[in-house]
Design brief:
The structure holds 2 protein chains of 2 kinds.
Chain A: E1 10-11, E2 15-21, H1 33-39, E3 43-48, E4 54-60, H2 73-90, E5 94-100, E6 104-111, H3 114-126, H4 135-145, E7 151-156, H5 162-174, E8 178-185, H6 187-191, E9 198-202, E10 208-211, H7 213-237, E11 241-246, H8 251-265
Parallel strand pairs in A: 4-5, 4-7, 7-8, 8-11
Antiparallel strand pairs in A: 1-3, 2-3, 5-6, 9-10
Helix pairs in contact in A: 2-3, 4-5, 5-7
Chain B: E1 2-3, H1 16-28, E2 30-34, H2 38-43, H3 45-73, E3 76-78, E4 90-95, H4 106-120, E5 126-131, H5 135-141, H6 149-158, H7 168-173, E6 184-190, E7 208-213, E8 220-227, E9 237-246, E10 252-260, E11 263-271, E12 276-284, E13 289-295, E14 304-308, E15 315-321, H8 324-330, E16 340-345, E17 358-362, H9 369-379, E18 385-389, H10 396-402, E19 406-412, E20 418-423, H11 438-441, E21 443-444, E22 447-452, E23 455-460, E24 464-470, E25 473-476, H12 493-503, E26 513-514, E27 525-526, E28 543-547, E29 550-555, H13 568-573, E30 577-580, H14 581-585, E31 588-589, H15 591-610
Parallel strand pairs in B: 4-5, 4-6, 6-7, 7-30, 15-16, 15-17, 17-18, 18-25, 26-29
Antiparallel strand pairs in B: 1-3, 3-31, 8-9, 9-12, 10-11, 10-13, 13-14, 19-22, 20-21, 20-23, 23-24, 24-25, 27-28, 28-29
Helix pairs in contact in B: 3-15, 4-6
Classes of the chains: A alpha/beta, B alpha/beta.
């Protein structure tokens, strides 16, 4: 069984890549004797390694993810993660999942088996939003648990201290993981379109606050865009793919846009 | 602290309204679930902190507005412990009812304060109540001994404003303190004009004497109403001179009006602080009495002056002796209302003097004894006068007749002439000649040298008396003849002679009386109400009185019009504790301050909302 993704590592594989002159230390069994017969020199045959991609889907199911006007962010993230899992499964890649809020709630190790995929879908289906976000802590824990390099796909609203989140994501990069961050947001969180004064209730800790939106809207929007800009700049700077996914955006368009971009990156 | 209207304190409960509205408003607010407020809290921390603070401050300010408002309406006062404070005392309460207390509502405030003070003492206290002025009222209304609180309240109500002034000494003089039960405490409530403290009893110096000071008002007062020229015989109109003084600390603008029967004239006045203006009114000679009123003054009690004037009337003059120039000089007009009606005779012996007001002897050397008796009898009438121009010689009888004025020495024949070198311009005869030289240039070729025994109003060169006045007898030391003087040819001759004649008559041109004067038994006096004023009684009310059938104006004494308060230093010297009626006695009224606080809270709330 082989995946469709190209591994950046050369080694034992079925697909020929190039010849290389034998160097002391190379295993003698790798010498191509046919070439030796023709050229009277020792050459070693190199192959492009084709490995199964190990993908980790990290799904944030904290309370804040339950927010949404048409569809809530968690639902949107669940559909998106299911779609991604399916795509990876179909590509014969190993896919695993971890759901978390204040702690890691569910975790399935990557595998290309169908049963594993079904388990992932079950976890996605049963995930419901609750608790606060401790994103940076969770990411550090997950980074330690993921021994083998792979693709880490994070679906979260990233409502934590940005600097700490970015630092945590970088820890994946240190372990040679490739990271995709889907920043799941609702349109209201970006535009803050509320008109009348109201009591705003925090979906994570349940605290209330009387807010006059008209007084803070412009300032909020400015600061929120600054936050998005910070994530984009710092994550891309750290070679971490970052995509803001608005819940208004259709999934296919969002996935297509991402995959297209991914293709270009490859 | 006391409250004048404590029921308003119930309104403080309404401070709950903003809190209820606040809570209701919060409850009514739509609850909007939001992903997380952490981001808002983190990024808008300052703003939320301020908004939260503003919300609390607004709520507090709204509560304070209501609190201050109702506290203000309840009229809280910080009361003084100096007066009353529930103790038992023998209180001597002097209420200033002098007419300067008629300023604004000063007297009502003084009465109100008196009630407050009385209420503060214990029920066992006794009170000696005395009005400062109008002692007649005091004697009839106020008991001399101490009374209970209830009686004291009633006595205070019975005291009315007086047209008089008075002193503390007089007010105390009628009270009997011999059986007082408690230590005496003296309280004077009034504006404390200087003359109220005249002859302040020394024994009160160490006593507990408190002066509850009523703010002294300003006053515009008619200080004097007189004929502009009392000795001028008016033809159709005479001029009334009204002197109005402004005792206010600021410029007064108002109207001075004169009313006499249907005749009414008004004049606008602008008087600087402490300034005086003279307003002139022309009045028909047929109107002898009326009122002068100043309008737009707060102290209304003295704004009307009742005048009754007697302008000089047409005089009948008899010239004895050389009448060539005198007759023509005094007969300035043949009009029926001419100032003089002049006749002349050679000798006094046949003349009936009863028909004349002035007898003029010009250059007469001597008179008979019988003529002298006639002249003496004539002079006994004060409204008649004798004028004598001395001739070249003076006989013994004539000498004795002029003796009250002077003693005739010798005839003075100067080389050439003498002139007038000193004139008493304050004398009505000469007051119109101030600044002129015509009179001073007149030459006199011979004059009698005399030794004066009475008032000299003019002198010639060498300091020799020229005109000497004694009551209604006037002596001029030179005759009015062409060979004796050239005065007769000067422009000053006629007016001087005119004024000398009219001024020599001792007529009272001002028949007005002042309150406080006593009615004499020789006169029949009726009050403005028509009631007969008893003999020896004191005039109490201003207005037009009838004295022996003549209308006489009775006016208030303008003494209090000066409104000069006893200074703090003087009060200290007299050991008087001065207490402000507004701040200390009745208690400091906090309502205005609280009202400003409410207003301030309201403004602060508006500012907060605008931020």
């Amino acid at each position: 069984m082989s995946g469709l993704h190209t591994s950046p590592f050369k080694g034992f594989s079925q697909e020929f890549a190039d010849y290389r002159q034998y160097m002391p230390g190379d295993e003698p069994k790798r010498i191509d004797w046919k070439v030796y017969a023709r050229r009277d020199r020792f050459y070693i045959k190199e192959y492009q390694e084709e490995t199964n991609l190990r993908a980790y889907i990290l799904l944030d199911k904290s309370g804040s993810m339950s927010y949404g006007t048409k569809v809530n962010k968690l639902e949107y993230a669940k559909y998106l993660s299911a779609s991604l899992a399916y795509m990876l499964f179909r590509q014969k890649d190993s896919v695993g999942i971890a759901t978390f809020d204040t702690a890691i709630r569910e975790m399935v190790a990557p595998s290309a088996k169908r049963s594993n995929f079904m388990q992932i879908l079950k976890i996605i289906d049963t995930a419901h939003a609750e608790g606060e976000t401790r994103l940076s802590t969770i990411l550090l824990q997950l980074a330690q648990k993921m021994k083998r390099r792979g693709l880490v796909i994070l679906l979260s609203d990233l409502f934590d201290e940005p600097e700490v989140v970015i630092r945590s994501l970088r820890s994946f990069r240190y372990r040679k993981h490739e990271i995709l961050v889907f920043h799941i947001l609702d349109r209201d969180e970006i535009d803050f379109p509320f008109a009348k004064s109201a009591i705003f209730t925090d979906l994570e800790d349940g605290t209330d606050m009387v807010i006059q939106p008209q007084l803070i809207r412009e300032s909020y929007k400015k600061r929120f865009h600054q936050l998005l800009d910070l994530y984009r700049r710092r994550l891309l700077g750290s070679h971490i793919d970052y995509e803001v996914m608005n819940t208004d955006t259709p999934y296919d368009k969002a996935l297509f846009a991402y995959l297209h971009k991914r293709t270009r990156l490859v | 602290m006391t409250f004048l209207y404590p029921l308003y304190l119930l309104g403080i409960a309404l401070t709950a309204i903003p809190i209820v509205i606040h809570l209701w408003f919060r409850k009514r607010l739509k609850r909007v679930p939001f992903s997380t407020l952490q981001f808002l809290k983190r990024t808008e921390a300052k703003r939320f902190g301020w908004l939260r603070l503003r919300e609390i401050l607004t709520l507090v300010l709204r509560c304070l507005i209501i609190l201050f408002l109702f506290l203000s309406l309840s009229r809280p006062r910080l009361t003084s412990v100096l007066l009353g404070a529930g103790r038992s005392a023998s209180v001597v309460l002097m209420l200033d009812n002098s007419y300067s207390m008629g300023y604004g509502n000063n007297f009502a405030r003084a009465q109100e304060t008196a009630h407050t003070i009385i209420a503060r003492y214990s029920p066992k206290s006794e009170f000696f109540v005395a009005p400062l002025c109008n002692l007649d009222q005091r004697d009839s209304l106020v008991p001399r001994a101490g009374v209970s609180k209830t009686s004291a309240h009633k006595l205070i109500e019975d005291i009315t404003l007086s047209h008089h002034t008075g002193t503390i000494r007089d007010a105390l003089s009628g009270l009997d303190f011999s059986e007082h039960r408690y230590p005496l405490e003296y309280i004077y409530i009034g504006d404390g004009q200087e003359h109220n403290f005249m002859e302040f009893p020394a024994e009160l110096g160490g006593a507990r004497f408190n002066w509850l000071e009523v703010p002294l008002g300003s006053n515009v007062v008619i200080t004097h109403v007189s004929l502009k020229d009392p000795i001028a015989v008016p033809l159709d109109q005479y001029t009334l001179l009204v002197e109005v003084t402004n005792h206010s600390p600021r410029t007064w603008r108002g109207t001075t009006a004169l009313e006499a029967d249907d005749y009414r004239r008004e004049k606008e006045c602008i008087i600087e602080s402490d300034g005086t203006v003279r307003v002139e009114f022309l009045i028909p000679t047929t109107l002898r009495h009326g009122t002068v009123t100043v309008y737009d003054d707060s102290l209304t009690i003295d704004n009307t002056y009742y005048f009754s004037k007697s302008p000089a009337k047409q005089l009948s003059i008899l010239i004895v002796g050389d009448d060539d120039f005198l007759r023509s000089a005094l007969s300035t007009s043949q009009h029926a209302r001419a100032p003089f009606r002049v006749e002349s005779v050679e000798d006094l012996g046949t003349a009936d003097l009863r028909n004349y007001d002035v007898i003029v002897l010009n250059g007469i050397r001597e008179i008979s004894e019988s003529a002298r008796i006639k002249l003496d009898n004539f002079r006994t009438q004060t409204e008649k006068a004798v004028i004598i121009f001395l001739g070249e010689s003076v006989g013994n009888v004539l000498q004795s007749f002029v003796a009250p004025c002077c003693t005739v020495d010798t005839l003075l024949l100067p080389r050439g002439y003498v002139t007038l070198d000193w004139i008493d311009y304050s004398d009505p005869t000469f007051e119109v000649f101030v600044g002129t030289t015509t009179l001073l240039n007149a030459r006199f070729y011979r004059v009698q040298k005399v030794t004066p025994r009475s008032k000299v109003i003019a002198r010639v060169t060498g300091n020799h008396p020229f005109i000497i006045k004694h009551d209604n007898l006037v002596v001029i030391t030179a005759p009015v003849t062409p060979d004796a003087t050239d005065l007769i040819y000067t422009a000053a001759f006629v007016p001087m002679l005119y004024r000398l004649t009219t001024s020599s008559i001792g007529v009272s041109y001002d028949k007005e009386l002042l309150l406080g004067e006593t009615v004499t038994g020789a006169q029949t006096t009726r009050a403005p109400t028509g009631a007969l004023v008893p003999d020896s009684s004191v005039l109490q009310t201003p207005g037009f009185y009838s004295v022996d059938g003549h209308i006489v104006g009775v006016n208030v004494v303008p003494e209090e019009g000066r409104v000069k308060k006893l200074g703090t230093e003087s009060a200290t010297a007299l050991a008087i504790s001065k207490i402000s009626i507004e701040r200390d006695a009745a208690g400091s009224d906090l309502s205005t301050i609280l009202l400003y606080c409410a207003l301030g809270a309201f403004v602060l709330e508006l500012l907060l909302l605008a931020l």
